[in-house]
What we know:
By secondary structure, the protein is mostly beta strands. The chain contains no helices and seven strands.
Amino acid sequence: MGLAARTPLKYKSVGLKLGNGVANKFKIGDIVQLNSGGPEMTVKTILDSAGGNYRCQWFAGKKLESGDFPLASLKPVSDAE
């Protein structure tokens, strides 16, 4: 099955509204974490104009890792700890 055959995911509309009505919840430089936990990550790139997918970076020890995540899988990290 190719990428064109995939059904697009639907996301809850929160945050800054863009011209297409879809929200861009995070901006470049925001600290986020997977809803399921894991390391804190920094948003490096907003992968689409809808703001529904983000490329994030984090360190695993001294190694810089990165991955692409849908909005529904991410939550903001609170500054207060």
